Amino acid sequence: MKTINLKDYYPCYTQDTFVEVPDELLAIFEEYARAEAAYERKKYRYKAHYSLDRGDRIEHDILFVSLSPDEIYERKLTSE
User: Fold this and answer.
1) Fewer CB within 10 A of the end CB, N or C, for the chain?
2) Do the Cβ atoms of 29 and 4 come closer than 8 Å?
3) DSSP per-residue codes, 9-57
4) pTM of the full predicted structure?
5) Integer distance in angstroms from the first to the last C-alpha of the chain?
6) What is the distance of C-alpha 73 from the center of its chain?
7) Which residues form the domain of 42?
8) Could you read off the pLDDT tens digit of each residue along the chain, which spans 80 residues?
9) Domain count of the chain?
10) How far apart are CA 2 and CA 15, in angstroms?
11) Could you say which DSSP state residue 67 is in?
């Protein structure tokens, strides 16, 4: 069992919170950190900048807000 700081792995933690985790879980966290660092290096190396007006609907997917069932029902009642 190893002790990790949840603040390092989760952005919602603003204070230091130490937790003991199994070695397998620690290995998964470390593997994810290595993969994320490799992705950032590759993105920097190949200057992979993406444009939202490229035409592949990325902008639409980002801006689209799905409505909850309550909101859909309220809109239906309002329109009636």
Assistant:
1) C
2) yes
3) H-TT--S--EEEE-HHHHHHHHHHHHHHHHHHHHHHHTT----TTSSSS
4) 0.52
5) 60
6) 30
7) 2-79
8) 999 999 988 889 999 999 999 999 999 999 998 999 998 888 888 776 666 566 666 666 667 677 778 888 888 888 88
9) 1
10) 19
11) P
